[in-house]
Amino acid sequence: MMSNHIKLMQGNEACVEGAIAAGMRFFAGYPITPSTEIAEISAQRLPRVGGKFIQMEDEIGSMAAVIGASLTGLKAMTATSGPGFSLKQENIGYAAIAEVPCVIINVQRGGPSTGLPTSPAQGDIMQAKWGTHGDHPVIALSPSSVRETFDLTIKAFNYAEKYRVPVIMLMDEVIGHMREKVEIPNREDLEVIDRKKPTSGLVDYKPYRIEDGELVPPMAEYGGEYRFHVTGLVHDETGFPSNTPKVAESLIKRLIKKIDDNKKDIFLYEEYKLEDAEIALISFGSTARSAKSAVDMARAEGIKVGLFRPITIWPFLDTEIEQLAKKVNKIITVEMNLGQYAIEVERKACKYAHVDKYGKLNGELITPDEILKKIKEV
Amino acid sequence: MSNQYEIRLSGAGGQGLILAGIILAEAAIKDGKNAVQTQSYGPEARGGASKSEVIISNKEINYPKVRKCDLLLALTQKACDEYIDSLKKDGILIVDNSVEVKRKDIKKFKLPVIETANEKLKVPMVANIVALGAICKASSIVTKDSLENAILNRVPRGTEDINKTAFEKGLNLINN
User: Fold this and answer.
1) Which residues form a coiled coil (chain A) (predicted)?
2) In this model, does residue A3 exceed pLDDT 80?
3) Among A102, A250, B57, B150, which has the highest number of CB atoms less than 10 A from its own CB?
């Protein structure tokens, strides 16, 4: 017999279930393939848990609504794909500087522009980090299975709330649309983190005041008893704009530092058969599944290959990649683009190991056979 | 990978192939197996090429797409021509009887799937369920009970009877 917790579930559906389990009570979006099911299922599920769903006029409007909802104290999310992700960028920067927790799901498809609407790609790796202008913090995660989509959506909310940053989930069409057998954990077994609220008096309340030893200010909600100002301009601890060089530098540096100093907490990855590996594949999202199959195929032929699977894409797994490069002779990055993550890997690994890359962007998932062929080439 | 069974359902958009794939995968899970279902389709809602793939296994399934398939369903000539080479030797081919097939090294079932739905049941929409009946009989990859259960769980309320009949008709298209 099938238990109630075991079912066939789609990646996009698991994303919504994870979000609701994490406490999402607001979704604003503008539906786009291959992320549409996330909006559709959110529209069905949210009203039943006392939440709100709104279909906005466009993507940047959706991002603005998510920021607004989060400022009122709700956990808020939006979902999109490449073209919409481009349009959200300005407000992602707003969320970064104003330190508004929010989750942005990007179910990647072939680009640029409207590109290949129904086909998978992993071409938004760099955009997730640098899509919005200026130095800014961002966290990006990439799931490889339906169950992991559920788990990582919860983590995305947890990181957003804990560090007051926009968190981007880089899914892809394969993971978003794929259905597989999943076991959904019990609610009481899940770790859910909520934002820290202020405890200071109402009169001397400063919304961006940092306590000693802290990097993230506690957050009041609009409509509550604390009154505060929020802006996309550089601001001091009162939340009002400032042009002072000292204020500007310390704000932006703190925004970066709050992520940099917490990499240990944010770094997520999986290692597969790397113990004695001479060659390491580095792959994430759906292509990591192909890479895992390729590792097994190569091992069956006596080639010592393993897989390093980044789950956290940003911040970049710098120390881990360096460690890996010291252990193996060769690294092959495998991704559905022409080598975006590879640039970062090369930067950290080239001193210690030969870095090669395999990329594909014809709208088809990279196959294990293609990876095996590449392994034999290097 | 030998205990992994790969199924490709192909035809035109609107024929319910993605739903058929979902139902097959759910039946496999009811049988206690592991299953992954994927799909590919064009930007148009119906009429374009459509493909749904199911992998059933007793183990973890990594690469989620079908490579060489053990069973191919093709409801249109175009789909058959495109995917016939992906069928393994001695694999099972189920085609609509409107489809011409040259390959001989396979187990071929040429069946009136669309005709059964259109003429006998007068509900073109159930062609996918007729096909599932035929797949069940031809392959035994999922049990009849689990498949029937999965069908009844997925079809719209009020259409259980017609879908049950469609499933029976599909089973009966293949004689033992």
Assistant:
1) none
2) no
3) A102
Chain A partners within 8 Å of B36 (Cβ): 178-181
pLDDT confidence bin for A5, thresholds 50/70/90: confident
Domain locations in chain B as residue ranges: 5-172
Whether residue A180 and residue B37 make contact (CB cut-off 8 A), yes or no, is: yes
Give me the amino acid identity at A142. S
Q: Do B67 and A365 touch (CB under 8 A)?
A: no
Q: How confident is the model at residue B2 (pLDDT cuts 50, 70, 90)?
A: low
Are the C-beta atoms of residues A76 and A26 closer than 8 Å to each other? yes
Q: Which of A316, A254, A248 is nearest to A282 (CA)?
A: A316
CATH superfamily of A1-266: Thiamin diphosphate (ThDP)-binding fold, Pyr/PP domains (3.40.50.970)
**Among A180, A32, A44, A311, which residue's Cα sits nearest to residue B39?**
A180
Least confident of A281-285, B49-53, B85-89, B103-107: B49-53
In angstroms, how far is the first alpha carbon of chain A from the final one?
A: 48
The answer to whether the Cβ–Cβ distance between A292 and B36 falls below 8 Å is: no
Give the pairing of strands B5-12 and B69-74.
parallel
Total count of residues recorded for chain B: 176
- B62 touching A (Cβ < 8 Å): yes
- Contact between chains at A293 and B37 (C-beta distance less than 8 A): no
Which of B62, B145, B146 is most worth mutating to test chain A (most A CB atoms within 10 A of its CB)? Answer: B62
**Which of A179, A270, A273 to mutate to test binding with chain B, by most B CBs within 10 Å of its CB?**
A179
Across A154-171, average pLDDT: 98
Which residue ranges make up each domain of chain A?
Answer: 1-266, 269-377
Q: Which of A118, A179, A293 sits opposite B41 (nearest CB)?
A: A118
Is residue B54 within 8 angstroms of chain A, CB to CB? no
Comparing A1-266 with A269-377, is the CATH topology the same? yes
Cβ contact A149:A10 at 8 Å: no
List Cβ neighbours of A373 (8 Å cut-off, separation of 6 or more): none
Q: Is the pLDDT of residue B114 over 80?
A: yes
Q: In angstroms, what separates the C-alpha of B176 from chain A's closest C-alpha?
A: 29
CATH architecture of residue range(s) A269-377: 3-Layer(aba) Sandwich (3.40)
- Whether the predicted pLDDT of A163 surpasses 90: yes
CA angle, residues A268, A274, A275, in degrees to nearest 5: 120
Q: Chain B interface, mutation test: which of A10, A113, A147, A181, most B Cβ atoms within 10 Å?
A: A181
Residue B167 pLDDT > 90, yes or no? yes
A363 vs B: CB within 8 A: no
Reported as a pLDDT band with limits 50, 70 and 90, residue A305 is very high
Q: What is the pLDDT of residues B41-70, one digit of tens each?
A: 766 656 677 899 999 999 999 999 999 999
DSSP code per residue over B16-40? -HHHHHHHHHHHHHHTT-EEEEEEE
Residue of A nearest to B25 (CA): A8
Summarize the confidence of residues A110-134 as an average pLDDT: 96
> Residue length, chain A?
378
ipTM tops 0.95 = no
pLDDT at B1: 43
Which chain B residues have a beta carbon less than 8 Å from that of A286?
Answer: 64
